[in-house]
């Protein structure tokens, strides 16, 4: 009994090595033992199935950077947040801003982190490596320079910055995607970012949020003043998921259903872009 267990263990050990190295050789000890043969065949089948499943994940080997806009401590750290930084493309501006909020006090930084977390789960389930600018709302910043650097350092295949807009003009609502303008200094990411931006715009319509009726053209708006885009060396866009100062948009954006739907729409666009 003990001897037989040892043989099965040997068979397992030899198969583990074989599946890691990609070779089909097996231990002569295991293959010469009749009791171990059925176990060997079963494990080979299971091992092959697992291997095929992993290689078919749509984002295997891809890196995605998620930037949840703003932070919970920004308002209380105005000196740090207002320090001027080089935002690229000849623009000097504040390190970050505190972001907007709905009329009933739901903060943009809370919304952006909720969507970012939902998105991270979906991307990782699809096989992606995810890097994030922040994972909670307890601190301030980081500056827009650092927000771009996270995606750059990770050599991300795509980077997304998640926001909600704050426009007080009556009747203004809807989402829009901010893409790097064609005259920006980092021209190498313009075409790919615009291609992703169009995919994201199309995908985001599934959330029920309409395209913006006050900014951009059919939901797309080129920008040359955003450090997060100007300083990015990898394809990147921002999305303003809605207008938090509009009661209809704000109501949607506070719902868990919309936040999950927004994450799913971004995830779908990323899968399409990287496939
Ligand atoms: Zn914002």
Question: Biggest sheet, in brief?
Answer: 6 strands, mixed
Q: What is the overall silhouette?
A: globular
Structural class: alpha/beta
User: Mind telling me the CATH class of the largest domain?
Assistant: Alpha Beta
Low-confidence stretches: 1-48
The CATH homologous superfamily of the largest domain is called Zn-dependent exopeptidases
- The total domain count is 2
Q: What's the total helix number?
A: 10
Helix-strand pattern, N to C? HHHEHEEHEHEEHEHEHH
Report the span from N to C terminus. Answer: 51 Å
In round numbers, the mean pLDDT is 85
CATH architecture heading of the largest domain = 3-Layer(aba) Sandwich
| Helicity level | 40-55%
Task: Kindly report the oligomeric state of this protein.
Answer: single chain
Polypeptide structure, described:
The structure is a single chain. The N and C termini lie far apart (51 Å). Mean pLDDT is 85; it is low at 1-48. This protein folds into 2 domains: 2-55, no CATH class; 63-274, Zn-dependent exopeptidases (Aminopeptidase), CATH 3.40.630.40. The chain is an alpha/beta fold. It has 10 helices and 8 strands. Helix 7 (190-204) links the parallel strand 6 and strand 7. Bound molecules: zinc ion (ZN).
Summary of the model, kept short:
The chain is an alpha/beta fold. The chain has helices at residues 2-21, 28-31, 36-55, 78-81, 108-125, 144-153, 190-204, 227-230, 247-253, 256-274; strands at 63-68, 84-86, 92-94, 129-132, 158-165, 176-180, 220-223, 236-243.
Top keywords for this entry?
275 residues; Aminopeptidase; 2 domains; 6-stranded mixed β-sheet; 8 strands; globular; disordered N terminus; binds zinc ion
